[in-house]
Every structure is written in structure tokens, then in C-alpha cells.
Amino acid sequence: MVPVHGKNYMFPSHRWLCKDEADGKTEVEIYPSEIIEMELLMNYEVTVVTGDVMFAGTNARVFIQIYGEKGKTEIIALENRSNNFERNKTEIFKFEAKDVGKIFKIRIGHDGSGVGSGWFLEAVDVKHLIMALVPKEKKKDDKKKKKKKKKGEEDEDEDGGEEMQEVVLTYHFPCSRWLSSGEEDGELVVELLPEDAEEDLEVNTYEVCVFTGDMMGAGTDANVYINIYGENGDTGERSLSNSDNLNKFERGQEDVFIVTAIDLGTLKKLRIRHDNTHPYSAWYLDRVEIVDTKEDITYYFPCNRWLAVDEDDGQIARELVPVDEAFMKQDEDEEGTGATLGLEQKSMSTTYTLKIKTGEKKYAGTDANVFAILFGEKDDTGLINLKACKNYKNKFEQGMINEFTVEAVDLGDLEKLRIGHDNSGGSSGWFLDWVEVDAPSQGQRLRFPCGRWLDKGEDDGAIVRDLYPADLQTEVYTPFVPYEIKIFTSDVFAAGTDADVFIVLYGQNGVCTLQKHLCVNKRERRLYFERGAEDMFIVELEDIGDVIEKIRIGHDNRGINPGWHLDRVEIRRQLRKGKGSETTIFPCECWLAKSEDDGETVRELVASDIITQKLLRDGTLKTTETEVEDALETHTYKVSVRTGDMYGAGTDANVFLTIYGDLGDTGERKLAKSENNKNKFDRGEVDRFTIEAVDLGQVFKIRIRHDNTMVGADWYLDQVEVQDVETEEVYMFLCERWLSKKKEDKRIERIFYVKGYEGERNTDPYFLKMSQSRQGLDKNANKKKKKKKVSVAEEGPIIPYHFTLSTGVDRDASTTARAYVIIIGPNEAETDRLWLDLAEGKKSFAVGSMEHFVCYGADVGEIKRVELGHNGVTPESCWLVDELSVAVPTKGIKYIFPCKCWLAKDRGDGLTVRLLNVLDSSTINIIRKVIYAVTVVTGDTQYAGTDTNIFLTVYGANGSTEEMLLPKNGDRFERDQEDTFTLEIDDIAPLKKIRVWIDGSGSRPDWFLDRILMRNLTTEEEYQFTYENWLSKTKGPKRTKVCELPAVVDDEEMVEKTTYIIQVQTSDVGGGGTDANVFLILFGEYGDTGTLPLKESTNRNKFERKMKDVFRFPEMLSLGELSKVRVWHDNKGPAPGWHLEYIDVKDEAMDQTFRFPCDRWLAKNEDDGQIIRELACANNDSIDLSDKTKYEIATTTANTDDASTSENAWIVLEGRKARSKEFVLENKKKKFLSGATDTFEFSSKHLGEIAGICLGHITKDGKKAKKAVFWHCLEVVVTEKELGNKYFFHCDAQIPLVAKKDQFQTFECYKSVESFASKVRKLVPVKYEIIVITGDVKGAGTDANVFITIYGVNGDSGRRQLRQKFRNLFERGQTDRFVVEMLDLGELLRIKVEHDGSNCSCGWFLECVEVTNTASSVTTIFQCGKWLDAEKADGQIQRVLYPRY
Fold it and tell me: Among candidates 1111, 993, 1102, 997, which has minimal Cα distance to 1059?
């Protein structure tokens, strides 16, 4: 640390300095890995002169504090090695401290320790360096130098002038007085002015009058200290020792003290504390009055609170602010009650809650006395003794979080926290994990990480540490405001209670505070709420607006005689404008008791009167009282709860209900007393309850839960009906769900919306992110702090990013810190910080784990860099990242960054953040996805909802998706509900049909699907799929778990219905028939049919030798032209081998038959041993491509002013097979106009796939062009008419006009769309060689069954098992080779490798897979390098692999 630079440099080394290790060097240069800004300090030199009088010296500890225009330094102890402060000695001390600017005073003193501590101080000098303009010194000219000078330089530094230089500034502070308790005024501290001080600064005397309260045990014997703050600095902490009373601070007493200090100007606040050193230290301070004797002004500082460890909030230090005299006087008129100005004090001060976490290490706890100081940008709190913990008696034990309250006035933003202990007690060493400081009135929660020992014998031996807030762990929320709550208990027999009382305040439109418990511990519960008492609480709660509509107050009914008779509640708040306050009165005058009235222990109260007090300009208070006119009324709600009529539906657990309306909610109420059943919530029963609450307005949701107590707590809730008796409105809630720890999603708390609810209940992260980004909030729903330099890509579209993080396998590789990623695009455009929050139940990025995340962030364009970091700052939070992969599905690209480095303060280079460059990553092309908003509508039939797994496959004109599991997400797919969420779907539009199927798992396996809507969020195209039926094995007419639905666009179905008649001819070969079960899938233009079991044939005994079996499949969605059939059998029964001749498929709607010849065995012991075959359609061989074909050429001219041409153009097509002749694009009828698309048709021999074009621009008459003329061609599309393949050329070029055809421009094909007919032609059987390499790591091999699916541009292979006879496959480090015959897949896109998890050691580490098309000899390599193991990494036993290019 170099405080004078204001910088903290980190030099990582992590290497040997040793002759026998590594490179043998014993000396190296190391460079900083990071430079952190810190507080800039400057050097001070203080000279202290002790006087030349008898006993002038001292052995006490001396300190100094320097005040300047920019603030003050910390208190600095003056000590060095020699024996200081002896008679007639001059000592010099050097230290670093904050730059305070021009110094106007110092305070110097000592602590009075040691024998003969009195000290006669003569003077003090303070010196520091500043930059100033000083006259230049003339150099004495050296004769020799003169000669060396060139002529031109002669006159330069002749004349003087001024220059900036560092000069020493000295302040002299004369003193010449004793600092001794036995001399002069007995003070040990003095404030000194510099010799040439400004006139208006002079020494002033303050009379401090301290009034101790008049109540039991109010006095104290502890030492009391005060610090007074004004406009010009403060007095420093002074001991209040010399009072006019012998016994100070006794009950009801006034003590007067004199404090001498440099004039402070107007007083701002004071801090008063005691040190809690004597047995009876608790002190009730009524108020402090300070008289400024120079100006003759009296300041009033009301307190009315305890300074005691075991009273109130446990603080023994208070900061007080002065209030106007009128407020002090107001109450004296009202029969002698003291002024209660706690609210005013609270609103001007900040309450900090300190949470201190002791580490989890062995012996981490301490018994020493712990103290803290909070430093803000304006001031610090002084020493805080952390004595009174709110939640534990034995503090700072291992793994414990202790809470303390600290109040301070106007510290500004917190900059650091000093925490330490006095090393007392038996085991004083302490491992401090972190300190959290929560300031509700500022709406900030700061985390100060430590993660180090405060122990003389550990780490660096320090027992005091300075901690700084970790920026990434700061939470920001809406600031709280103070409320003064007065609770009047009635004067009735047994009115008091010791139960735990809570309160909730409601503003308009249902805005409310959190439930606040008024007492912290048992002791307070015993003290408060006694008969006839008036108890005041000052609490900070959420700001609910200007009007308090209602309050809810209740208790937990614990303790002896917990019944409570509440008279009224008064809530006072400060006015938003002007000085003064507003009190709202809520009368109650009834019991909150189980045994009285209606047995309720919770009441809702509405306001009756509002009293406003306002301070007028002339210093008087004006009080006005108004009655509340349109207060809300109390309504009665009748609640009927129907339990389902099924096995085990009833419950004996306690049930709790909250009803929400647009004006507020009822809070959680226990459904205790059923009006019609003694035994509540029995199977098939309806229980009725009455709830009284203030008018909720329109009821729209309920929250219901049980506490899982008693045997058989599982509960099937059928429905809840809420009737508002006053308005006679009935609200229906269809529930039909289990609340159970064993069934469904194992939740015992649910939220239900009213039947027909149209409002917002969106849980989809994409939509949440969209709405947040519109409001400018980040992930924590915190208001963003705008960075200066970075252009956050705000306005762009929000897209999903998929992250996979692998943690290393070193010992300390795991971390509990919170990780984040920032994606950076061109021009430093970047996303928000995308936090990677682990799934529930996971605490850390574990060693060797692999975690997947989906985040939604701005689209920054092409990714340039990725920042990966975490918010941990302690040595404990080190993390070894192995690999980060970032996939952008909407762009079809995935980057894999090999990281293999530490993100840690104490490992590697000490950085917790990495910038990864895309150039260092390997890039993979993945399936491009489009985001669709999917709305699933469940029908309104009894038990329509489900918790089963629902799968969806989408088919489009350009392919189909994998089957996708639709996430249940807690509350989706329930009766009469519309659920909208986003899905990433392959780019296959226009959509043709979908297939939906359920797997029948779960507690409620049946589902009534009404319809599904899909909307493409980029193009806004909408597709509707209607079913209106059950998916169930037991309900509805169809008894099916799968359905296919055609896409409907503008009331038109995209695919039509048909009947498929499938004829299967078994060959006339010995043993050709089979008794196995046969299945097939048809593939065509619009996808596939799904698996069709060939069960119901025209023959009783199916698939016999030389037989033809006919199967009929009515009500199918037509696939259009068919391309192939996948047929297989399950190898069951005796001699299951089967010789298939051919399959004919007739589409009745198209009246067309497709022939699929086979003439091969499907048998394990014949031919190549395969029992699955793909058969290509034989109908398509009719087209003869040796002849001529036609080409259509469409040119698009750019839409700019001078893009068009009146001359001709010409084109040559470059095919893979041949090159075309030159075609002239004749400009006859005004072609090539700007923005126009013109088509031309030519016939030519067949050229094969078109790879490029040559494009020229030529004069009509063949003469030279007179001036430079250009044709701006934007795009050319070439269509081959026979098969319908399209080739796209993106030109966007200015083509110059010339006379001859020797000048032209060439363009490559950037996209081609292959027609269905063309794809079908390529479907010829091909043998694929598949090589599987198992990794060479411990336990890499597997004995499970391995399957592979290969995907190419022509379709997929289906799931094929990889097996060989008499060979142990997939062993560690082994290479296994398989040959599988399939129809040609074309260019391979991806493969899916999976195993079935059978056998005990089934975990498998797959290195890579190589697939070779033996016909074309093209090999595609698919890297994996990951586990397929339910126990390791991410627990997946299947991987989708993409080729690396």
C-alpha cells in the first residue's frame, strides 16, 4: 500500500526462489496484477515541545487530531521508540493522514495513564508539503558548461520566472499550559489555534447541562463522554468528570459541565456515551442542554432513552440532534409529561444494523470485548462497544451471526469499518468472516468482507482491522422512513399480555409494510403491554405513502394469559414538507384473545382521527385535528374450503389463509374454527369459516398453506370460495392440487388466482427481464448505478445467453461466492452484470462440478470479450474455473473458453475477475433458435390440471425440433389457466404442426389441453393449435397420451387430415416371417408421424412368409410427399428375424401410393445384424437430370437514387458439375429500376449445386460508355426449376458499365435452400463408420448400453445402439469402431450420445466421436471431453456434440 499515491498494488509471485527448484532463480522481477484506488493520504510532520518547568514531562499516551477545511484526520497516537515527552525536549513524529487542506485547529491531549501524568506543553508545529508557485533559482553558471552549449540555446534559462514546486508549509501552535487533572482547569485535552489564525476563530466555553431521567434505575456510575459537533468541526470526545454535583448522573438530577473548545459555530449534533464499566451502568438520559456562552444561545437535545446494554436497543452511545424550543415547550403545558421527540431524533439520524459473522473454523470464536468504528465520508461514529447483541447472550461464537444496533447522525456514505478487540479473556483469537451494515433509512445494505484472523498468534498478528465495502455485494432498496407507534393497553382487568405483538401498516392500493414485531426479546415482552400502559416504539418501515388506510395488529397467543385488551394505537409520522408531524389514531377497544369475544388474536383497525402539528414561521406550533371522512369499512368474508374426494385427501394439520384484494390483504389467518364440522378438512367435506377484515376491494388471489403437523398432513384441496357478505360478491378459486411434502412438487404452500383472472401472474424469466430492462433495473431489482464510460447496450433486444461453468478439481477449487458474467461486444457495448445464481439447494460451485445457467441480457452484436468474475473478496472465496462456455442460441453460435485459472485474492495473480477474449476460444456452430412466446391453455373441466411431464415437438416447413419438456414451474398447466412462457425453437418456420405427449408420471397424470398458441417474437407470426380434449389413459374418448395438432393461421389449417394405409410385404425367404412387435415412422415434407405400432392387421397372424399385411391409420395429419420410412422390431419371440420385401404407403387424401423397397433382413444373426432399417422412397427416380433444366434468375436493384440502369446486364452461373454459358439479362421493359426485383428465365444443361456467379454490366450497342455509369445490384436469387433448389447471392455492389464482357464481379453463394424433392433424391443407403474414444482418466469406462443419434441436413438416423459381439466396449483409454448403415444424412450437424445408466459402474468419460461417411470418405469429429455420469459434473447421461471446425 502506498497511501501517498492513494494506491494499493498487488504483486503476485507464486513461484520458487530456490537454486534447487523450478528454474533455479533466487531473484526475480514481479509486476503488479492489479492496482486498486484507496484513500489518498499525505505525510505530516509534527514537532512537540515540552515546557521547561518542574515535572513537565509525562509518560501518558499522547494523541493529536488535526482539523482543516476539508475535514479532520483520525485520532493519531504520537509514539516512537524513545522515551517521549520529557522536560524541555523537542520531539518529531512523522505519520500519514488524510489531506485536510488548510489547517484551522488541532486538538492534543493524553489519557492520564501512568504515574505523574501531568504534562506541560509548550508548543506544537505541524508541517506538510504542498505544491506552490515559487520564483526560479538562478543557477551559478559553470564555465565548462557554457562552452558545451550550442549557440541556439544560450538565452534560454537566463531570466527567472515562477515554477510549481513542492514547498514545506509550517503551522505553529503555541500552548504554554498544563494538561493535568491537578493543575489549572483539570483538563487533559486542549484545542489550539495556529499563530496567524483568522479573527473569527477563538476559544469558546460551552456549558453542558445533562438531565438524567426520573425513573427507576435511571442513574449511572459509569464514565460519561461527550463530543459536540458544529459547523466548524467538533470538540473531540471529552470526559464529563468535573460536575457541580459530587455524585454525578443520579436519578432526576441535572449536572453541569464546562467544555472549552475553539468556536464551533452553529451546533449540529452531539454524541454522548458511557463506558459501561460499573455494576449499575444503565442510564436513562432525559435530555442535554448546551449554552453557547459567547453567543448566549441555548440548544436543546432531547433523548428520552436508555443508554444501557439490556434496555431498549442495547446501545450505550447516542447521537442527538437539536430541536426547536417550541417542540420542547409544547408538552410542558400538558400536565408535566416530558417531551417525546424520539421521532424527530430518529428521522434526523441513521440507524445501522450491524450483522457480524464469525467464521466456521475451529476456535473461531472470541470472548474478548469487540469494538467497531464506522467511517463515513463526512464523519465517524467514534468507538462503539459491541456489548448488546439482539439475538444471543454469548456473542461471537463459531459460525454465529450477531446483530447490533448503532445510531449516528449524518456520516455520509460509509467508506470503511474498523473492527477489533482488546485481546482480553481466555481464548481471545477471533476469525471474522464478514460484517454487514444495513441502513434502512438510506436503503443500503453493505457487506464488509474480512475472512481473516484477529489474533496475536495467527495471520499477521493484528487484532484490529480496517474493512472496506465490497461493491458487488452492496444491495440497494427503497429507503425506509421512521414511524412512532404508541400503543395504549386498556385499563381493564387482565388487559395486559406478554405475547409477541406484531403490526402491519397499509397505504393506498394495497401497499403495505412487512410484519414488524415490536419486541425483540422475552424481557421486552414482559415489560411492555401492561394494563393501562402507554408504550412507544420508534420503528423504521417501508414508506407506504401519505395515507395510512388501515393497520393490522395481533399477537402469537403465547405465554401465561396472553389475552390482550387494546384501547387504541396512535401512529405519528413527520410531515413531508415543513417541520412538524401527523398523528393518526386507530381506535380498537376490544379483546385480542382466544377466550374472549370472537376468539380472534388479530384485528384490523381503520383510522378515526388525524392530528397535525406544524411549526409556523414565528416559532409557534399549530395543532389541527380532523376526522377521517371516507375510512374503509370492516367487511365479513365467509370462506368455504372444499377438500377433494379421493384417497388420503384430508388433513389434520393447521391451515392458514391470506386473501388478497386490490385494496390490501387480510394477512395470514389461521382457519381455526370450522362453523359446520368438528373435524376440519376431511375427505370430500366443505368447511366454512368467517374472517373479519377491512374492505379488500376486488379479491383476486389467495395464499393457502398448512404447517405439515400431525400424521397424514397431506391435503388435496379442491376449491375455495370467498364471499364478501357486505357486497354479496362470490369469488371462486379452483385449486385441485395437493399440499403435501410427499406428492406433486412437495410444496405445502400455494397461491391461487380467482376464476377468470386476466391479470399479471407472469413467472417467465424472459418477460421479467424485458419489463425490468424497461424500468432500468438490474437483476436484484436494484436501481442501476450508471457507469460513466461504458455504453450499456440498453435499447437492443433482450436475448438469452446459455452459460456452462466447470469448476476445477483442486482441493480448494470450490467457492460459495456469487459468480457473474458480462458480455462485451464491439465499441465496448456490454450487457448488464448477469449473475449466475445457483439452483435452490446448491450452496457452492463444487469441486469438479458443471453448472448450467440461462440469463437474459441485451444483444451486444458480435461478442468480442467475456468478463467472468465473482463477488468474493476474502481468501476463503477462491475459485478455480476450468472452462466457461457461452452459447447464443439466437445466433446459432457457442464459444468455449478454456479458463483453467484461479479467481482468487490469494491464488494465481490475485484477481477475482477475468477478461476472456473470443480469439482464445473455440467456436462451434449450434442450432440457431428463434424465441417464441408459447401460451398453453388448460381446459375448464374438473381435475383438468396436471403435474405430469409434458413434451412438445414442433414441425415446420424447414425441419423439426427435438422434443422439449415444458417446465411446470410450480403453478403452470392448472385448470382454466392460460400460461405464457418463452421457448427457444429451431428456425424452421413456417410452422406446420406440433406433437404433444405426456408421460403419465406425477400425482395427477391426466391433463385436459384446450389449445396452444405460439407467437414468433421477431416476426410476430401467430400459430394456433386447438385440441379441446383429454391427454389421459383413463379419461376422455380417445384414451391417448399423445396428440398431433395442425397449425392454424388465419383460420386456415397448414396441413390436412388423411388416412394412411400401410401395406407390408414379407419376403418369400425361408424363416422370413416374424412374431416380434414391428414399429415404423413415416417421414415426409411436414415432419414425421411419430412411432406407429403395426398392431391391427387384416391378417390374424402378422408378418408371415410371403404375406401382405394391411394397416389402416385414420385421422392422421398428412406429411405431404413422403421421403423415407424407419422400420424396426423389438426382437421378441422365437426366431424374431424378419425378411422384409417392401412397404407401400397410400395417402388417401392425396390418392397417391409411395413404394419403399427393402429386400433385406432385420435380424441379429443375418446380413449386417441390424434390426432397424431406413427405406428410401422409390417414386422419385423418375426425374432425369441428364437433360436440360431451367434456371430462374431474380435480381434486386438497390433502393437508392442512382442505383438503376438503362443498359443490359449479363450473368454466368458456376456450378459444381459445370459452368453455364453467358446469359444476357436484357433491359427491355424498363427493368433494373431502383428498388425493383426483375426475373429472367434461361434453360441450360444441369450445373449441379451453384457455388458462385459472375455479374457484368454492358452497353446495349457495344460502344464505349461516355461517362462512368454504375448499376447498384443488391441481391441475386437463382432457382433451379426442376427440383426447386434456391441459391442466394448477397451482392450490394456498384457494377461499372463497360463495352466488352471482360470486366465483371464474382459473388459466392451465402445461403441455399434445398427443396424437399432434392433432399429425397439424396437418400441412398450409406455405411457410416463410427469411432468412439473413451477418455484415459480414472473410472472412465462404462458397462452401460450406449446409443447414438446422428443429425444431418437430410434428417436424423434415429437412436441406434452401439454394440459388438464378444468385446468389452467403452473401457478406459479404448477406441471402439462400429459400422452402421443409414440413409445418407448429408452434412452432419450434430450427434447425441447417451447411455441408459444400467450396470453399477455406468459413469463414462467420453473423449470424442468420429463419424466417417464411407461413401464420400468425409470424417466429422465431435469433441466431448466430459463425463456422462449421474454422479459427476452436471449429472447428465446424454450429451449433444457439435463438430469443431
Answer: 1111
Provide mean pLDDT across the span 885-905: 91
Joined grid coordinates for residue 210: 445533562
Compute CA distances 753 → 82, 289, 653, 927, 934, whole Å. 79, 59, 23, 38, 20
* Grid coordinates of 333: 403545558
Which regions of 363-400 does DSSP assign to beta strands (E)? 370-376, 384-385
Question: Does residue 1147 come out as left (phi exceeding 0), alpha (psi in the -120 to 50 range) or beta?
Answer: beta
Beta bridge partners of 1442: none
Other Cβ atoms less than 10 A from the Cβ of 897: the count is 20
Residues 6+ apart with CB under 8 A from 231: 264, 265, 266, 268
DSSP state of 1437: S
C-alpha cell at 1256: 457484368
CB burial of 454-490 (b: ≥16 within 10 Å; e: otherwise) equals bbeeeeeeebebbbbbbebbeebbeebbbbbbbbbbb
The residue ranges of DSSP E strands in 180-242, in sequence order, are: 189-192, 203-212, 224-230, 238-239
* Residue 738 falls in which region: left (phi positive, over 0), alpha (psi -120 to 50) or beta: beta
CB 436 within 8 Å of CB 352: no
Please give the Cα distance from 633 to 51 (Å, whole number). 80
Nearest to 445 by CA among 467, 421, 475: 475
CA distance 563 to 498: 9
* Residues of the chain by 3-state class (helix, strand, coil), percent to 5: 5, 50, 45
Instruction: Give the chain's mean pLDDT.
Output: 86
Provide the Cα torsion 933, 938, 939, 945; round to 10°: 180
Determine the Cα–Cα distance for residues 794 and 612; give it in Å rounded to an integer.
Answer: 46
Best CA proximity match to 859, nearest among 926, 783, 801 = 801
Could you give the CA distance from residue 1193 to residue 1273 in angstroms, rounded to a whole number?
13
Q: What pLDDT is recorded for position 628?
A: 83
- Secondary structure (DSSP) of 313-337: T--SEEEE--B-HHHHHHHHHTTTP
Distance CA 619, CA 613 (A): 12
Mean pLDDT, rounded, for 86-106? 89
Q: Which residue, chain included where needed, has cell 509518560?
A: 59
What is the residue whose three cell numbers read 506552490?
132
Q: What is the pTM of this model?
A: 0.80
Per the CB < 8 A criterion, the answer to whether 411 and 302 are in contact is: no
Q: What is the pLDDT confidence band of residue 1180, given thresholds at 50, 70 and 90? A: low
**Contact assessment for residue 1285 and residue 1312, using Cβ atoms and an 8 Å cutoff:** yes
Residue reference for cell 478455480: 880
Q: Which three cell numbers stand for residue 643?
A: 377438500
What string of H, E and C letters represents the secondary structure of 96-114?
Answer: EEECCCCEEEEEEEECCCC
Count the Cβ atoms, other than its own, within 10 Å of residue 609.
Answer: 14
Quick check: helix, strand or coil at residue 768?
A: helix
CA 925 – CA 919 distance, rounded (Å): 15
For 827, the 3-state DSSP assignment is helix
**pLDDT band, very low/low/confident/very high, at 334 (cuts 50, 70, 90):** very low
Question: Which residue's C-alpha cell is 446380413?
Answer: 1167
Q: Distance (Å, rounded) from C-alpha 566 to C-alpha 89?
A: 72
Q: Are 270 and 228 in contact (CB under 8 A)?
A: yes
Beta carbons within 8 Å of 845's beta carbon, 6+ residues apart: 805, 807, 814, 815, 819, 838, 851, 879
Inter-residue contact 966 to 950 (CB < 8 Å)? yes
| Cα Rg of the chain (Å, integer) | 42
Nearest to 1413 by CA among 1346, 1320, 1331, 1348: 1331
Beta bridge partners of 1092: 1080
Range of weakest confidence among 180-194, 653-667, 810-824, 1430-1444: 180-194
